[in-house]
Amino acid sequence: MDLGSLKYAAGAVHKRKRIGRGQGSGNGKTAGRGHKGQGSRSGSKKRPWFEGGQMPLQRRVPKRGFTNIFKREFQVINVKDLERLEELKDVTPDVLFSSGLVSKRSVPVKILGDGDLNKAVEISAHAFSQSAKEKIEKAGGKVTVL
Q1: What are the domain boundaries of the chain?
Q2: What is the band of 88 on the pLDDT scale with cuts at 50, 70, 90?
Q3: What is the distance between the alpha carbons of residues 53 and 146, in angstroms, rounded to a whole number?
Q4: Which side of the chain, N or C, has fewer Cβ within a 10 Å radius?
Q5: What kind of fold does domain 75-145 have according to CATH?
Q6: Is 0.85 topped by the overall pTM?
Q7: Secondary structure (3-state) at 133
């Protein structure tokens, strides 16, 4: 088998509909556009979301809630995850990225206080929860906000 012998599946290819070619064709006179109305006119175009003058879906559906456009998105790391980093004294977002604990370099990192920390570590991140700060400092570590 080669590219020259490939054929479409049976029934997949149709002949082009030749409109406006006389009454005998079945598509003469109005050329399949019907009589009068918006669709019969030249230049007629309806947007896919147009509902014929009916109240559009986007306006019918009730609007609820609020989206804060100033919200800051964080990648969260728990204190127990820092325990997994072996033999590291300085932990930065780049170190967390290279170790696979965070997935993006561009998104800020926040340290949360779930779990326990048993080693002294200097941690630099964009934000810390109060409990995380206390646990890190209790273990003899240091917290730096970027």
Answers
A1: 15-64, 75-145
A2: confident
A3: 55
A4: N
A5: Ribosomal Protein L15; Chain: K; domain 2 (3.100.10)
A6: no
A7: helix
